[in-house]
Amino acid sequence: MAVVSCMLIIFLCFPFLKFVSVATAQKHVCDNGNGNYTANSTYSSNLNTLLSTLSSNTQINYGFYNFSYGQNSDIANAIGLCRGDVESERCRSCLKNSTLDIQHRCPNQKNAILWSDLCMLRYSNETIFHKMETSPGYYWWNLENVTELNQFSQVLGNLMKRLRGIAASGDSRRKYAAAENATGLNFQTIYGAVQCTPDLSQQECNQCLEGAISEIPNCCDDKVGGRVLRPSCNLRFETYRFYGTETTLDPVPEAPPPSNTTSSKESGNTTIIVIAVVVPTVVVVILLICLLLYLRRLKARKNLAVKEEQDDEDEIKIVESLHFNFDAIRVATEDFSDSKRLGQGGFGAVYWGRLPNGQIIAVKRLSRDSGQGDTEFKNEVLLVVKLQHRNLVRLLGFCLEGRERLLIYEFVPNKSLDYFIFDPAMKAQLDWEKRYKIIRGIARGLLYLHEDSQLRIIHRDLKASNILLDDEMNPKIADFGMARLVLMDQTQVNTNRIVGTYGYMAPEYAMQGQFSVKSDVYSFGVLILEIVSGQKNSGINNGENMEDLLSFAWRNWKEGKAINVVDPSLNSNSRNEMMRCLHIGLLCVQENFLDRPTMANIILMLNSHSLSLPIPAEPAFYVNSRTRSLPEMQSWEYNSRETGSSEPILKSVQESENEASITELYPR
Fold first, then answer.
1. What angle (nearest 5°) sits at the alpha carbon of residue 415, between those of residues 414 and 418?
2. Which end is more exposed in the chain, N or C (fewer Cβ atoms within 10 Å of the end residue's Cβ)?
3. Each residue of 354-385: pLDDT tens digit?
4. Boundaries of each Gnk2-homologous domain copy (predicted)?
5. Pairwise pLDDT comparison (654 vs 620), residue with the higher score
6. Selecting from 1.20.120.640, 3.40.50.300, 1.20.140.10, 3.30.430.20, what CATH number does the domain 1-248 have?
7. In Å, how far are 29, 102, 168, 341 from 20, measured between CA atoms?
8. Is 199 marked active-site?
């Protein structure tokens, strides 16, 4: 049956309607509200770079791209979203075509959006991530009328409600659902699909789709098909199948086939014959395999040095497109002058500089006498360049020239969290709304490291001085110098080299060298308690005695006096939210790592105030006795293999305003 469609555009901010050509199967909106840009401006250059990266990124295979490029007023933010049944190559092709089309149709607007059948492309100079937006939007309906309106509307409503719940429960990679109606009509079947941008929470996705579904009677009442499109979500229904099979995110391993059994009486003689024939054959095969493996291993040892050198060259080539000219960095930092120095990290000094295009950067110059410099430098580039998230400090590039090893990061202007939260004067700038935003942002960054990035990263040194704040007080996790890459299915790893910061380390890590994602959860719990209380974990004055923060928080919570833990400088308007964060912090610092929640569960706890929380067990108080003699806020490591001693080795670390350091990529 030939289907004819037409579209109606609804702008919440414009009181007029406009019809759009059906043949293009797309709609664009050029918003002049944010101003325009010129062709040779910094914003134009940032936008072109961003859109090119968006449509050429082959590392993402789940159809959702959310990237930023640039700084301050010239920053460009973009979202690309493909339908859940669109394969990666076809998705990138759709985004590439959309990029060309939207730049042609919106040649100088800083804010624009384009919808097509398979994908949506949107960019803006304002923050568009993790925000539910319903305007601008439009309707698109089929001209053919239904014959049984009441029955059709009832079945359609049930189908949309079911799909809404499935889509909203998706993870941070995809929130999409498509199906046909379960009950059906006597004469036709209804097919439907709904989708949200995956950066929305479950509650926000539900809310966005609920609003879109409520618009169906306004746009498509008595029609056999229609669409409601919004920046943050969309839906479509037809009486024909318009979607394909949803692409798979995590392949499910096939179950082994069931083994056949026979009675012992029937198989007795057969078994004897099989053993007599098979065993000698198997022995010979095993010997041949062992010989082959030995010869291959011998050959591999001979070629090891050459192979390692070639591997190093290949790995550097992967990121050679991010290479910065050393002279340009030297000029930007005024020849690494002391006036440009931000701080001193574990492997070198950090400077700030300004590029010729006006962009401000942070530069880490690795120490020339660092024995780990070259290897650690290579690992940092290979690892961090793959980490793209708004709550992680972004690596812009690197410089490798002679003995010089430089890492170039985005500059985060508002220093680190400890600069504000522990200073009696500066903490006044952090009201509860900002502190709650910081807690949620750190949680989203950790969730990305633990579950949503292509690599599973355990940070191992999460602390207040490693949380940098941008100009809008959004948190960015920094300093991956102690991070570890683990396999996606590994739950726990052991190490003989313990590195971290006193007060933030989980007990199983400090005492036994066992670390996992739950080690980072413990550190996050300490951070929550510090943010809520405005106190360092190292100690709180309690009369004539000093009491560590975990003991203080647990004692007051258990006695029903949890309000005593809250920073007195905060007003009590959000008291319930503060108490909930305190509760979550205590769940994170429980001594048994199995009792601690995952970051995914923590995100749910922070976003849903109706979700009931379990009662926390007593936190780990090992810091009171085992490490009381350690100096405040020092990083330390224990390595029995290197020293032959069970005593920890103290390594002083100076805090810096914008410190980015080195990462060990491969498990030790």
1. 120
2. N
3. 998 889 999 988 776 555 455 666 666 766 77
4. 25-128, 134-242
5. 620
6. 3.30.430.20
7. 12, 15, 30, 56
8. no
CA 556 to chain centre: 34
* Burial of 636 (C-beta count, 10 Å sphere; 0-12/13-18/19+): buried
Give me the residue spans of the domains in the chain.
Answer: 1-248
567 by Cβ neighbours in 10 Å (0-12 / 13-18 / 19+) ranks as middle
Return the beta strands (E) in 502-632 as ranges.
Answer: 514-515, 540-542, 545-547
Other C-beta atoms closer than 10 Å to the C-beta of 131 total 13
Catalytic residue among 199, 418, 461, 548: 461
- Is residue 310 classed as helix, strand or coil in its secondary structure? helix
| CA 82/CA 94 separation, integer angstroms | 8
Planar angle of CA 344, 369, 352, nearest 5 degrees:
30
Residue 627 burial (CB count, 10 A): 16
Report, as an integer, the average pLDDT of 87-101: 91
31 versus 252: which is more confidently predicted?
31
Instruction: Give the residue from 315, 461, 319 showing the smallest Cα distance to 375.
Output: 315
Confidence of residue 90 (pLDDT cuts 50, 70, 90): very high
Structural contact between residues 661 and 480, judged by C-beta atoms closer than 8 angstroms: yes
Query: One-letter amino acid identity for 482?
Result: M
Question: Do 509 and 501 meet the contact criterion of CB atoms below 8 Å apart?
Answer: no
| Cross-strand bridge partners of residue 121 | 80, 114
Cα–Cα distance, 247 to 305 (Å, whole number): 42
